[in-house]
Amino acid sequence: MKSLWDDNHAKTLNNDPLKLRAYTSNLLGADQDLVMHGGGNTSVKVMEKNILGEEKEILYVKGSGHDLKTMGPEGLSPCDLEYLKKLCQLDTMTDMEMVREMKFSQMIHSAPTPSVEAILHAVIPFKFVDHTHTDAVVTLTNNPKGEEIIAKVYGDDIMVLPYTMPGFILAKQIYEATKNVDWNKLRGIVLLNHGVFTFSDDPKVAYENMIAIVSEAENYLKENGAWDNMAKGKSNLHDKHLIEIASMRKKCMDYFGAAMLTRLKDDELSVGFSNLENVKNSATRGPITPDHVIQTKRIPVILESDKSIDEYVGEYKNYFEKNNDGTLTCLDPVPRVGVWPGLGMMAFAPNIKRMNIISDIVDHTMKCIQQGEALGGWKTLTAEQIFELEYWELEQAKLKRGPAKKEWDGKVVLITGANSGIGKACAEDFLAQGACVVGLDINPEVKECFSSQAFLGLECDVTNTESLKLAIKQSILNFGGIDCVVSNAGSFPKSSAIEDLDDESWQKAIDLNLTSHLKLMRECIPYLKLGYDPSFMIMASKNVMAPGPGAGAYSVSKAGITQLGRVATMELGKHGIRVNMVHPNAIFDTGVWTDDVLKSRAANYGLSVEEYKRNNILQTEITSKDVAVLTRVMAGQAFSKTTGAQVPIDGGNERVL
User: Fold this and answer.
1) DSSP code at position 218
2) What is the reported pLDDT for 492?
3) d(Cα 453, Cα 456) in Å, to the nearest integer?
């Protein structure tokens, strides 16, 4: 591991301790081998004057919920250092008392809640304190001979302490262990099965001590043939497995009681790990560090049969009952990680943020387990110890403080024609409501349409069945299923009287505006049957009820998909799939309405372009966003008891009325 410290950049911070603290925090957070997704914590001690002019020593410690990778000075919580030092002298303190007292110690009450390790940071008598959950060091300790290995790797300048629960208990442990220690002879503390602390009055020294300690662990792994001990394999994925993925997701959602995402990781490392001869044993011994249990649960499910998830749920409930002291409520029993032999690793999550966290933890866990096995065995904390952290009220409180669940969290929406107009507006609206969106479009620019990790843009010719199949396959591999389809792709052909309508123009309109919707529906139905509150939204047109002259091909094709939707309503209702239709009219901010088309249609009605835009009872212009909101609402809970509906969004059209 290499130091990322940049002397030139550090000079620009003008020795500001808070800016330097944020800088080295960001350096630590930039490497997932050190900390992952908000893990680890840092602090700095400074002298400041209060409003009375009195000097006070303040501990600025990382605020709970902030990520070292992106944290600025505002992510640090200022606390009364002297008060925190006094707390560690108490014999006992409950978790809730600790939280209350840390909050009481805050100098600015609007600042973020201090890290649960704030008291520990106060105990260490140096200005800068760094704490990481580094993979390499924890891998050495997750071993039957962990303490012996650590002794070989490090000298007397590293203090080694056994695992204990974070918070006050850990702070008390370090307080007692270091009472008679010459801190100047220590460059770090290794907490078995947990992580590393480094410290110094110089931020560069504290940071580079961390890098050095981790590098020594990495070198030991390399020297003992563990570093590159990573199995590789080729996926045996077939199309039949796609429906199995959706079925797994459905089973998890049934137990979870809400929508969930599922992802198959079938890269060569994931497949190689899933193929390990002893994977069922080694993968179910526990996580790298106990705090991962909050995201991944203690062990993965081994997906050997269609009963595997049911069996896992039963085993989780038994695990809970065995360790419950009678005061706890069981969390959902759904697995978050799965090992699918021969196919790769599975991740299950309630939303895209958690999905990405779980996926990253899986990558690191596969590496650490194989390195650990090469060193003589992967051994983690006991189930009882991990349970204690999984049900620790302070960890559970972190989850509760997260953003409120949105209606579309965990749901997957597939939208055609997503690169522009109504399709793009729908994608944007669903994303804002927490959905994962698969956007299909013949324009390759759809891949870059949104930067959100919840968006998967795929180039696809919706008139081509094979192209659709491939796009749906990618949808299932990335998100696990399909809950809602917005069948939107279409075009408005050039105006033409029936007697002048050529075969090619007619067929092109029918192929895109009608037949492609049939193909999409046909390919999506098997997955919608396994979806969560599934719905199929058809983007039809006002022309279904009130066709206009010169729009024969368009009007007939839109009438056709409306009729298709009515038939689908009757066929799919028994599977809980709702089919509804939206009839927009005159949505002028779409690619369909080129200047030429707009002028031509306005002329047909003897109106100017501006008059034509507002030619409705409400005398208002309808936008793509308006259509998107209606589409999303109709696909959601508000219309959960409605199917077969045809709803206009046209400002009121006299011809329709």
Assistant:
1) H
2) 84
3) 8
240-397 homologous superfamily = Class II aldolase/adducin N-terminal domain (3.40.225.10)
The mean per-residue pLDDT over the stretch 58-71 comes to: 93
Q: Are 569 and 517 in contact (CB under 8 A)?
A: no
Selected catalytic residue, list 391, 532, 554, 612: 554
Distance CA 624, CA 420 (A): 10
Q: How far apart are CA 9 and CA 138, in angstroms?
A: 31
Angle between helices 240-256 and 465-479 (to 10 degrees): 40
- Answer whether residue 259 shows pLDDT above 80: yes
How much is the pLDDT for 309? 98
Is the Cα dihedral 69, 73, 76, 82 positive or negative? positive
Residue 623 neighbours by CB under 8 Å, 6+ apart: 425, 587, 589
Q: In sequence order, what are the residues at sequence separation of 6 or more whose Cβ sits closer than 8 angstroms to the Cβ of residue 424?
A: 418, 439, 449, 624
User: Mutual orientation of helices 203-223 and 17-29 as an angle, nearest 10°?
Assistant: 20
How many CB atoms within 10 Å of residue 51? 5
Q: SS3 for 198?
A: strand
Give the integer Cα–Cα distance in Å for 301 and 602: 62
Question: Average pLDDT, stretch 120-140?
Answer: 97
Check: CB of residue 247 under 8 Å from CB of residue 170: no
Q: What is the pTM of this model?
A: 0.92
What pLDDT is recorded for position 594?
Answer: 78
Does this chain's domain 7-223 share its CATH topology with 240-397?
yes
Q: Which of 73, 92, 76 is nearest to 23 (CA)?
A: 73
Among residues 507, 501, 532, 559, the alpha carbon closest in space to that of 635 is found at 532
pLDDT tens-place string over residues 34-47:
998 878 999 999 99
Q: Which residue type sits at 227?
A: W
Give residue limits of the domains in the chain.
Answer: 7-223, 240-397, 412-593+623-648
CB neighbourhood size of 582 (10 A): 23
Q: What's the rounded Cα separation, in Å, for the pair 34 and 43?
A: 16
Instruction: At 618, list the tokens.
Output: 């409400």
> Is 554 noted as a catalytic residue in this protein?
yes
| Phi and psi based region of residue 272 (left: phi greater than 0; alpha: psi -120 to 50; beta: remaining) | alpha
So what's the pLDDT on residue 176?
Answer: 94
Beta strand 436-441 with 455-459 is: parallel
d(CA 46, CA 392): 32
> How far from each other are the two terminal CA atoms of the chain, in whole angstroms?
71
Three state DSSP letters for 297-338: CCCCEECCCCCHHHHHHHHHHHHHHHHCCCCCCCCCCCCCEE
Give the count of beta carbons closer than 10 Å to the beta carbon of residue 419. Answer: 24
Asked if residue 496 lies in contact with residue 530, where contact means CB atoms within 8 angstroms, the answer is no
What pLDDT, on a 0 to 100 scale, did the predictor assign at position 422?
95
- Tell me the CATH architecture of domain 412-593+623-648: 3-Layer(aba) Sandwich (3.40)
> Bridge partners of 160?
190
More confident residue, 405 or 486: 486
Which pLDDT score, from 0 to 100, does residue 398 have? 62
Task: Rank 142-156, 310-324, 598-612 by mean pLDDT and report only the highest.
Answer: 310-324
Look at residues 183, 180, 136, 179 and name the one whose alpha carbon lies nearest to residue 158. 183
CATH architecture of 7-223: 3-Layer(aba) Sandwich (3.40)
